[in-house]
Amino acid sequence: METVATLDRRETGAAAAVAARAAARARIDDDKAMLKAAADLTRDLNVPKPRIYWADMLASAVIGYGALIIAILAPSLGWSIAAGVVAALALYRAESFIHELTHIKHAAVPGFRLGWNLIVGIPLLTPSFMYEGVHNLHHARTRYGTAEDPEYLPLALMKWWTLPVFILVAALAPVALLVRYAVLTPLSAIVPPLRRVVVARYSGLQINPSFRRRPPEGPARALWHRLEAGASIYAIALIALTATGIIPLKAFLIFLTVTSGLAVTNQVRTLVAHLWENEGEAMTVTAQYLDSVNVPPPALLPMLWAPVGLRYHALHHLLPGLPYHALGTAHRRITAALDAESVYHKGNYKGLPFLVGKIARSTMLRR
Question: What's the pTM value of the predicted model, to 2 decimals?
Answer without folding.
Answer: 0.91
